[in-house]
Every structure is written in structure tokens, then in C-alpha cells.
Amino acid sequence: WQVWAIYMVFAANLSKQQALKQTCPSCDAAQLCNCSFMGLDFIPPGLTAKITMLNLAHNRIKRIQSQDLQQAVNLRTLLLQSNKISSIDEDSFQSLVKLEFLDLSNNSLAHLSPVWFGHLFSLQHLHLQGNFYRDLGESSPFSSLRNLSSLHLGNSHFSVIRQGNFEGIELLNKLWIDGRNLSEYEQGSLKLIKKINHMIINLHNSNVFSEIVRDLLHSVTWLEVREIKLAVETKSMVQNSTSTFRIQKLTFKDSFFTDQSVSQIIVLLKPITSLQEIEAIDCVLEGKGEWDTKKIERSGHSFVKSISVINIIIQNFHLFFDPSGMESQIKNLERLTIASSKVFMVPCTLAKHFSSLLYLDFNDNLLVNNRLDETICEDAWPSLQTLNLSQNSLKSLKDTAKYISRLLKLNNLDISQNNFGEIPDVCEWPKPLKYLNLSSTQIPKVTTCIPPTLEVLDVSANNLQDFGLQLPFLKELYLTKNQLKTLPGAAPIPNLVVMSVRKNKLNSFSKEEYICDSPLAVRGAQVGAVHLSLMECHRSLIVSLICILVFLVILILVVVGYKYHAVWYLRMTWAWLQAKRKPKRAPPKDICYDAFVSYSENDSDWVENIMVQELEQACPPFRLCLHKRDFVPGKWIVDNIIDSIEKSHKTLFVLSEHFVRSEWCKYELDFSHFRLFDENNDAAILVLLEPIQSKAIPKRFCKLRKIMNTKTYLEWPSGEDQQQIFWENLKGALKS
């Protein structure tokens, strides 16, 4: 009965595995099991301990039952997002103690149960956003998740966060809350988390925003707020606390501002001394820049070092006021990015007060040359080292260089993707300039306008046909996507380390000016003085050609061997080697038959019904060996043939047209050829059942053809009166 029980268990497991293979073919014999987008309305049966990743996303699963994942004890990743899950049995995840990633987002869960996650001690990433729950319950669903690193939660129905909801979580790398309809936040709820590296929250309610910020000032490093419409807030965000601030970066994305809310948020953020960076991405500003600069100035100086404004929409940007009065707020700023925001100028009076600014990015704006004179006036941006003016509307390279030369400390300049078209022979540049990007500027050539102090130059994607500048300090040169036909001479750029020349029309270079880097044997030598062999220059090509030639030689040998019976000659050589180690004839005691009969199956009627009857019923009878009757069953056919020939006194060949074409007869001739067809050996008896020309015998049987030409053979007569003489002659040959 034990054997029967084992058999039943094995059969049940096999049945489950087959069911799994049918439901989700990719799970067969794989640790990674991808069953997404398969229209499943249940978790497939037969999941085993070998599976470490199970992807069931984008199906129609409605319920997770206790037994569904019970055997998947080594599961590390479980993806169940975008299903219709509304019910989860409390012990469904109980066996998944090794699970590290669980995604239940975009389902129909109306509540979250702490019991679900009670045994997920290894869980690091949990995604719960996009469901139907309105809150996280009265206590924390995450109290057992001590190793949790990232948590995504919330949805369009999520409206309440209570104290205790995050109990048990002390450290998160990322927290994402979809709280666009969050209306109630109990103060202190997020304070339970001691440290959050990056928090993203989608939020519409500005009151809730202020309360959350107050709780996060001492725990979060980077706070990203999305979709908020900031109202005018009067209550300070900083509470009386001895704890140090942790927040360093604040990002607003897809948010809405007014002039009043901008003024107020600047004032409220100033006391946060740890705040170093502010970003506004894809936001809308409704206003003209009428900020309360007096109130802003009275609130003290700002600690922010970096401001980034990317793709901000100001519907009436042409009416935007000169932000005078903000001078005192920008003197400590070190990095400023205003990209894709239709900036066409910065007033000179304001630009002069960016006394500490090191990095300025005006990428993808509306700057033109005549406004650039105002933006970069004398004494403006006095500390600037890096300037990005790419993708603007600058037309004159000479004027652009002239204005930029006022930046006395500039060493890094990007003016790419401006349509200059022409390049003058002489330009003014800042003396410290080391990096210059002129890619995609439609310049047809390079001239001495380019400063000789450069260490990095990018002139990619232009119309250059040659490059011959003297740039003694240049280390990196980018010439991609031009019309170059020859490499630049090496002498004018002696310190070059990197050169990119992809997508040109190169066909030559100066061998006298370039130095070899590889192979190691010629490193440091001039290219013109080195003469490498074809193998050294084209190693991969030569190896490929050798492989092709070897393949062709093998193919030719196979074809020739097949045509000229090379396999037969190899077999004969092996048979000859075996025959050399055996005596010419077997000892008399080992002789079992008077003759071994070799014949074609098509001649079996004559052999078996006429010849055998005549010889085996003679007085005395002859003992004949026939393959049909006397071969040992199960023994290799070749061994049967060799043994039968060696144990027979004679070998009787019944020759006919069928014999010549027979594979059986060919084998029997093969393995008797060396042993039987000696010039002085009479062990072979040839019987011609029908007239046959010696030339009909395959040429490889050369000794057989020779014997037929030089020795007597018996020919079966057609007349009955001569058949008796045939039998007498055959019997006499067998007795000799």
C-alpha cells in the first residue's frame, strides 16, 4: 500500500505539472515563469518550488486562494498587477517567506489586510497602487515588513491616512503615494518612518500638502509633489523642533502655481536650512511675475543652491514682468536651469546679481543674438563656469562668441543646435574656455575662430569635409556625422586621446603622423613604418575564411568519398586488419558448415527450393549456412557474416544481376574480400544463376572481377538434361 500511495502522489504531481504546462507553457522546466497577457482567470495549478519568478500580470484573475501558491516556497518575485483581484485568502502568501517583490497594483482590492503580509519577512518591494481601498485601516498593514525598501500605494479613492498606518516601517528608499483625492491626514502619520530617500506624492489638496511637509522635513531626503494646485498658505511649515532637517531636494511636477502662491512658497521654504535644490517640471504658472518681492526680501536669504525649471507653461509669457526685487534671493545660487520655457532674455540688472552662479542652462528656449547682448552684459554672471545655450535661435557665431567672451571664468560652453550657417575666421572667446560644443550648427568648415585653448571640441553633425586646425591642447575631438574623406593630421593635435569619426566618408589618413597602439609588438611606432602581415591586420577575416575553407574541404571529401566509395575502402581496411590477426583458415574442429551461401533475396526461391533441396538431401548430405536460417538472432549482422564465413569450408556465391545490386550481398563480399579472394585460394565457388558480364560487377570488387576472368565458375544451365551435370560439378567443388 505504501508503493501505491507513492505512486498516487507522483501521479498527482505529474498531472499538476502537465496542467501548468498546458496553462502556461513558459513555466515548463524554467525558474522564470511568464504567464502575462494570457487571459487567465485563475492562478495556474502545479506551481513548484523551483519557480523563483512568476508573472501573472494583465490577466483576469479575481481571487487568490490559500492553495494557489502553497508550493511555490522559493518564489522571489510575484507580479499580479492589472488583474481583477478583489479577494485574497488570509493565508494565501503564508508560504512565501522568501518573496522580495510583490505587485498587486491596478486591481480591485477594497481593503488591505495585515494578515496577507504577516509572513513576508523578506519582502523589499510592495506595489499596491490603483486599487479601490479608501484607507489603510485602523492600524498598519505593514508592521511585519521589516525589510521593506519601496512602497507604492493609493488610488483615486484613497482619502484618509491615519496615525499608526505606517507603524513597523523605519527606513524606505522610495515611498509613492497616489493621494490626488486625499482629504484627511492625521498629523504625525508619516513621522513613524525615520528615513525616506525619495518620496513621491500625487496631491491636489494644498492643506494636506503643508501638513505632510511638516512631518517629512526631518525624514525625507527628496520630496516630489505632483499634480498639486498650490493655494496661498500662511502657516509656517517649520514647527518648533530640535531635530535637524533632512530634506535636501523639493520637486514640483505637473503642478499649478499663481503669482501669490509662488511668493508664499518661497517665504515658507526659507527656514528649511537643509533645502539645497528646487525643481519645477511640466508645471503651469498663471500670472505675470507680480511676486511680492518686498515680503520675500524681508523673510531673509535663501539656502537653496540649485533651481531647475523645465517646460514651464506661462500662457502670456510675453507679458511676464521683469522680476526686479529678487536680487537678494539669487546671490547664493550656484546652479540655474531654465529649459524649454520660452525664455528670450534675462535683464542685465538681474544677471549681475547671480554672483555665485557656476552653472547656467538655457537649453531649448527663444534666445536670439540681439537679446543675448542684454542677457550677457558686462559684469553679468561673474562666476559662471558652464553655460548651455543649445537649441535656441542664435544666428551669428561671431556675435555669440563676442557676448560670451564677457564671461571671464567660463570654461565649458554648449551652443549646439543653433543655426549659425557660417563661421568667421576670427572670434573672441573667454580665455579659460576648455570645452566647446558646436555640433548641429550647420557650419561648413572649421576656422581659426575656434579657440586654440580647447581640450574638448565637438563639431559633429555639420557639413565638414576636412579638419586641419592647430589645437595643441586638444584631448577629445568629436567629428561624427560629417563629410570627412581623410582623418585629421596628427601633428596639429599632438595631445589627442579620444577621436570619434563615425558616419563619415573616410578612405585615407596620414600614415606618417599616426602612432600605432596595437598590436603590442608595434605600439609606439609610426603607422607608415609598420608592415603587418595579412593575418595580423585581418585576424577575424582570416579565421573566418579558414573555417569556411575547412568546411568546404570536408564537404568535398564527403561528396568525393560518397561517389568513390571511400567508406567501403575504410571498412575493407578495417576488415583486412582484423583478418591479418586471424589464421587463414579456422581449425577443423571449428568448421560447422560445408558452405556459406551468399545470395540475393530476389534469388531466394532458386536457392532455398532447388539448391538447398538438392545439396542437403544428397548422400551424404551437405551442411549449408543460410542467413535466414542460421544467423544468430540479436547478433550484429557484420559479426554474423564474418563468423559464418570463417566457420564454413567454402563460400558459395550465387551471382546474378540482383546479387550485384544487393546491399546484403555487398556486405558479404566486403567482409570476405580480403580473406577469400587470394589468387591461390580456392575457398570461393562462383555460381552464375544467369549470364552476367564481369563489367557489371562494381569496380571496387577488383579481385572478384579478376577471378571471374581467370578462374572457372559454374553456370546454371537452362536445359534439364544439363542440370544433372551442374549438380555433380557443384558437389565435386564442395568436396574438394
The CATH architecture designation of the domain at 339-510 is Alpha-Beta Horseshoe
CATH class descriptor of the domain at 339-510: Alpha Beta
Q: What radius of gyration results from the CA coordinates?
A: 47 Å
CATH superfamily of the domain at 339-510: Ribonuclease Inhibitor
Uncertain segments of ≥5 residues (pLDDT<50)?
1-16
* CATH third-level topology of the domain at 339-510: Leucine-rich repeat, LRR (right-handed beta-alpha superhelix)
Q: In total, how many beta strands?
A: 31
Structure described in brief:
26% of the residues lie in helices and 17% in strands. It has 736 residues and is of the alpha/beta class.
Walk me through this protein's architecture.
- This protein is of the alpha/beta class and 736 residues long.
- Among the domains are: 252-333, no CATH class; 339-510, Alpha-Beta Horseshoe (Leucine-rich repeat, LRR (right-handed beta-alpha superhelix)); 515-545, no CATH class; 593-735, Toll/interleukin-1 receptor homology (TIR) domain (Rossmann fold, 3-Layer(aba) Sandwich).
- 26% of the residues lie in helices and 17% in strands.
- It has 18 helices and 31 strands.
- It has a 20-stranded parallel β-sheet, covered by helices on one side. A five-stranded parallel β-sheet has the order 28-27-29-30-31, sandwiched between helices. A two-stranded parallel sheet has the order 3-5.
- β20, α7 and β21 (386-388) form a beta-alpha-beta unit.
- Residues 1-16 have low confidence and may be disordered.
